[in-house]
Amino acid sequence: MFKKVHASLGRPRHAAGTTGRRARRITAVTTAAVALTVAATAAYGAVTDGGATGSHPPKRIGTAPRVPAGAIAAGTTPSGTALHIGVHLAPRDPQALADFVTAVSTPGNSRYHQYLAKGQFASVFGPTPATIAQVSQALKAAGLTPGKASPDGLTIPVTTTVAKASDAFDTGFRNVRLKDGTTDYLNTAAPALPANIAASVTGIVGLSDISTITSHHSAVRRASRTSSVAGLGSRAVAPHAYTPGLCTDFTSSGLTDGTDYYSPGKLAGTYGMSSSGTAGAGQTVAVFELENVDAASIAAYQSCAGTSTAVSTVYVDTAAGAGAPATDGSVGVESALDIEDLIGLVPGASIIDYQGVDAQSATDQNVLDVYQRMVTDDQAQVISSSWGLCEAAEISATASAENAIFAEAAAQGQSVVAASGDDGSSDCYLSTGSTAKAVDDPASQPYVTGVGGTTMTGSGSTATQTAWNNDTGGSGGGISSRWAPVVYQGGIATTAKRAVPDVSALADPRTGYPIYYQDNSVSSSPVPGIIGGTSGAAPTWAAAIVQANASTACQTNGRVGFLNNALYKAARSSYPTNFWDVTSGNNSVYATGYSAAAGYDEVTGLGSPKEAGLITSLCAAKGTAATGASTFHPLSSPKRLLDTRNGTGWGLSSIPSTKPLVAGGTAPVKIEGAGGIPSSGVTAVVLNLTVTGTTGSGSLIAWADGTAKPSTSNLNWTGAGQTIAASATVTVAGDGVVDLYTSSTTHLIADVQGYYTSGTTGSMYTALKPARLLDTRSKVGISTTTKITNAVVSLKVRGHGGVPTGASSVVLNLTATQTVGSGYLEAYPEGATRPTASNVNWSATGTTIPNLVVVPIGSDGNVSLYVHGTSHVIADVSGYFSTSGSAFHTVTPLRLLDTRTTTALDAGKTLALQISGRDAIPSTGVKAVVLTVTVTGTTGSGYLTAWADGGTRPTASNLNWVQGKTIANQVIVPVGSDGKVDFYVSSTTQVLADVAGYIS
């Protein structure tokens, strides 16, 4: 069937430009104003799993393709039309796969750079053999003939006809004639499968041949100011010994290297990359292509550059000699740019051209087949793609299948880069006619590094760069409409979803890449030309990664693998040492887009490579997380490590951000080496976490960077406009970082109170039966019952409540109650300067709010409590640190109790919770446990008290609340001889308990 050509040849807005780009078609893809009516079949009975018909009701998967606007019905698709379908399966545990990728990409994690071996993915993360067999059997029962699953188990191929697919998936098919006159077919309903197997299937791809995938390169400008060549006869390129420059076809063209184009030597030198005939030796890089490549053009470039790079081809769903020949000055140009750019920058590497079906006839499944082959072959350490389509034009089934493939690549240690597109912020314009903000796939995929484009002037140390945007195109970039915020962009791209691009490089064709390509209308021999587009920027970044992988550092510490974690970590630590920040220009090509600015932006990302600095960061040594029995080191005064309101610890190292943490976003907080904390040996940190300016109800989770995000919580809030704090003891990862996640948008503050280190240099903990040292409501520890207003209370600690004279720090549960207006409370050693960090916060009259604090004791044995605002104050002691006692041990956060799964704890009742023997906690010898206890679904005002099972319930409390509130607080509770702790509540409520560590 005839298909349209999707090559990137021009844009209507720039038709009068000087580059000779031809206008591409505009086919608006929308559900509105469609001159086409389609109907789905009515019966479901054709879909079974081998049992009785109807035993498993069908479930539709995904959605049907959107019908292009202006399309007209062109009849029913012939029943015999052949279909190449992929039934795509979910990994057996998608979260475990994501956690593994994070682990192998995080220095200090025990799995750092311990990638899966070739062929290992299927047995570790692929669907189980039973799942594959079950889905295959269901397809057979539906009258299809499934093939053997792909090597990773993620795809079951099916070759069938429209008639059989219609019956099997309960969907009709229709032909549509598009505005450009071409005819395509599509399915009229989302495919259906039996419900018992539908959960294992992420999508069925190949039921439609409507596709808008395109390459992201400009038109070619011939390498001559007069745009002339010497006739149409054959001409050979004289062999040229390798130098950083090129042969006379370019040097004598009247164009200037470093002004009109950038030779490999000039480009490498400007980006700090190595420039030698062996650069990239021992490495393999793969390019994704949907067209033939002219071998003579590659050979001509090698002769001109003086290289002998090994270039091979792997054909996917096609064969040598099939498809349109690369002879018309259009077909083969993208492949030539990708391969020749890599030859020039990493001539010592091997290049594999993975060639799929021609773009003009490729279906989404053909595209997926190429990516999947590149990953399952696992021959290349780096994969580069200069092809893509706007997110809105891609069905969710295709995007999900791609995501699993790229996650597999990351697990195997393969770096994937992709061009971000040449249409600025309106990536869908040339495929849908929309000028709305949109980004390109696969550059927007979470496991892909999106590469934008720049315009460069000059070379070497005097070079400058701006965002590429002129009549030849502009750098693609913006915010994904599909993918949630990613951990690695936390604090840098403070957007509601994944931001694109990640990085950028030269793309402007006016100062672009020298290539050879074939155009028989000009010459029977390869023609020298200059070309651009983000299609050039992507392989340039691929070459930068190849050079990093070949470096001594990466040879010692392991190849880069998934790039984005390392890129953004490098930016946080020493920006712009590792990047060339591009700060001017925009990508407003068809509509107002985004502007380049200092730091990250949605035009050029983090910027272009500074190779030497990047190698240091991307090839970092493993590092080791401190473990074992730990002792405590209090800070004399809390230190603020994060405050999103003013940029403290938020954003790039040299360019702070003042934007809040977005819903679903993550804030990485550097612990080791910050705020007086040692640069190594830290096992855990005690943080006071505060949310302020909340936008709705939400929760916060804190955990060690590079490890799986736990299903626990450390802080909860119930509405907008709140300020609330909670203490948290958090394990510190080997990279010295902890992560903070919030479920709703809020500003976030993190103050460190102290930290634990392995060894015996710090203080040990002794748990006490909780005792009340202060209650301003009833003259406990004070001579008045008046609320405290903007004043300091001196709290006697040593010699009270079981705290000995040798104690250095005390653990207090502080509660503000009967508050008036907003305010806060600060605890600090008496005699010391009052800190700027608060411990308890409230934002309304009538609030009751607790928080656990660890406070150094003043030389007079007292602690000062400052109240800003008006409130009653309660202080209960639960333990102390001194030179004797027991050590602290970290554990992976785990929820030990959630009464919501059973029944609420009734008023006046006590619940015993087993601690010892759970979540790596020893079965004996445990003195106390560190828990975050949360009450929710509260039915009235009340309090919770925790103590060692078998003991007498103390009069002190750990949590206090008013009706309807969700309140969390950290507690350090003595553990009974039977390994249990008790919880008592004064009013009916649900109770949750998450463990963070234990004392033994």
The parts where pLDDT drops under 50 for at least 5 residues are 1-54, 225-232
Q: Strand share of the residues?
A: 25-35%
Main sheet properties: 8 strands, mixed
Q: Please, how many helices?
A: 16
Nearest-angstrom radius of gyration? 32 Å
Helicity, as a percent range: 10-25%
Rounded mean pLDDT score = 91
| Overall morphology | globular
The class by helix and strand makeup works out as: alpha+beta
Terminal residue distance? 73 Å
Give the number of DSSP strands.
Answer: 50
Structure overview:
This protein is of the alpha+beta class and 1000 residues long. The protein contains 16 helices and 50 strands. Strands 11, 12, 13, 14, 16, 18, 19 and 24 form an eight-stranded mixed β-sheet that branches. It is globular.
What distinguishing features does this structure have?
single chain, 1000 residues, alpha+beta, eight-stranded mixed sheet, six-stranded antiparallel sheet, 16 helices, 15% helix, 32% strand, globular, disordered N terminus
Short overview:
The chain has 1000 residues and is α+β, with helices and mostly antiparallel strands.
Produce the secondary structure layout.
Layout: E1 58-60, E2 72-76, E3 82-89, H1 94-104, H2 121-124, H3 129-141, E4 155-161, H4 162-169, E5 173-177, E6 183-187, E7 192-194, H5 195-198, E8 201-205, E9 214-215, E10 221-222, H6 248-251, H7 264-270, E11 284-289, H8 295-305, E12 310-315, H9 333-345, E13 350-355, H10 364-377, E14 382-385, E15 387-390, H11 396-411, E16 415-419, H12 429-432, E17 440-441, E18 449-457, E19 464-467, E20 469-470, E21 473-474, E22 478-479, E23 499-500, E24 503-506, E25 513-517, E26 527-531, H13 534-550, H14 552-557, H15 563-574, E27 579-580, E28 608-609, H16 611-618, E29 630-643, E30 666-670, E31 682-692, E32 698-704, E33 715-717, E34 723-731, E35 737-742, E36 747-758, E37 764-775, E38 788-796, E39 809-829, E40 840-842, E41 849-856, E42 862-882, E43 888-898, E44 910-914, E45 928-936, E46 942-948, E47 959-961, E48 967-974, E49 980-985, E50 990-999
Parallel strand pairs: 11-13, 11-14, 12-13, 14-16, 16-18, 18-24
Antiparallel strand pairs: 1-7, 2-5, 3-4, 3-8, 5-6, 9-15, 10-26, 15-17, 18-19, 20-21, 22-23, 25-26, 27-28, 29-36, 30-35, 31-34, 31-36, 32-33, 32-35, 37-42, 38-42, 39-40, 39-41, 39-42, 43-50, 44-49, 45-48, 45-50, 46-47, 46-49
Helix pairs in contact: 1-11, 8-9, 9-13, 10-11, 13-16
